[in-house]
Write a structure and sequence with these properties.
The structure is a single chain. The chain is an alpha+beta fold and 309 residues long. Strands 1-9-8-2 form a 4-stranded antiparallel β-sheet. A 3-stranded antiparallel β-sheet has the order 3-7-6. A hairpin with a 2-residue loop joins strand 4 and strand 5. Helix 5 runs antiparallel to helix 6.
């Protein structure tokens, strides 16, 4: 009887262990299935969420086209002179002269290969204090004011006039807002680092080398080639039409380039007016009451003259 009880007890224990094992396996399998389902769902959701939506993605800002870099060649053979042009500057303006020389040093001996493009901004670089540029007169908001790199536009304009005569293809050129005196009106090429560039393409079968000299008040640009090529008979003409200046270039009698320039009138400067007003106030405080009336009349007369000028 005792043995029978022990046998029954052992059977019960064995049955309990078996049932517990089966339940544990089922639970583990269920957990694996749940994990698999969750993982699959998570993967699917992530894929959908991170898909790029063109309507909500900010487009990349447009940038200026970058051309292949141009290199200098001081020792190569470029014996054929195609064109030259000179402009003049005041050596007494020290900072402006320094800016001219700095820009010229970047351009001198630059080689523009056949079908290559010269970009002034890309070649000269940004005009900054670290780059060695100083403050001189620039055009801003309709008047001449002090600005970093003033005078550099004379370099780009001199190059423009020279390559016109070498029959280069003008890719980009803009006129100044105000009139400048170092080239004929309509024959300038202004530059500004972040908005305006001067570019030309060497459309000939030869390589060009640009030589620039800035010395003793004279700025000269000359284009040489490594092959003897015929640029044709070049004619440059600038005519005025109303408030516009029209520049045309003909080659062997046929026009192949035309550009129009329009300039604004310079804003009247208020600096002299302020100086005169200050002096008048100082003078008035020192004079007697009987002289104030006379001073006031003279002041009104002077101010009227200033506005007319």
């Amino acid at each position: 009887m005792k043995r029978k009880r022990i046998k029954n007890f052992l059977c019960a224990v064995a049955a309990f262990v078996l049932v517990f094992s089966l339940v544990s396996c089922a639970a583990e399998q269920a957990n694996e299935e749940a994990t698999t389902t969750t993982a699959a769902t998570t993967t699917e959701r992530t894929t959908v969420t991170t898909t790029e939506d063109e309507k909500t993605t900010f487009p990349e800002n447009k940038t200026n086209k970058i051309y292949p870099g141009l290199s200098k060649d001081e020792n190569g053979s470029y014996p054929y002179k195609l064109a030259t042009y000179s402009t003049y500057y005041h050596t007494s303006d020290k900072t402006r002269t320094a800016n001219l020389k700095k820009a010229v040093s970047k351009v001198n001996n630059i080689v523009v290969p056949s079908n290559g493009v010269f970009s002034f901004n890309q070649t000269v670089g940004k005009r900054t204090v670290t780059a060695g540029y100083e403050t001189a007169k620039v055009v801003a908001d309709g008047e001449f004011v002090d600005g970093l790199g003033g005078g550099v536009c004379q370099v780009s304009s001199t190059i423009f006039e020279c390559v016109l005569r070498a029959n280069a293809q003008i890719v980009e050129r803009s006129c100044h807002t105000l009139k400048v005196a170092y080239v004929p009106l309509g024959g300038d090429a202004t530059v500004q680092w972040n908005s305006k560039d001067f570019k030309f393409r060497n459309s000939s079968s030869a390589d060009f080398r640009i030589n620039m000299v800035c010395d003793s008040g004279k700025l000269t640009c000359t284009v040489y080639s490594n092959k003897d090529i015929d640029v044709g008979k070049i004619g440059i003409n600038i005519s005025r039409s109303g408030s516009s200046y029209v520049l045309t270039r003909t080659v062997n009698g046929e026009q192949n380039y035309r550009t129009i320039s329009t300039y604004r009138e310079q804003k009247p400067s208020t600096t002299k007016k302020k100086e005169k007003t200050t002096k008048k106030k100082e003078k008035t405080t020192k004079k007697e009451t009987t002289e104030k009336a006379t001073t006031k009349k003279e002041s009104e007369k002077e101010e009227t003259t200033e506005k007319e000028d």
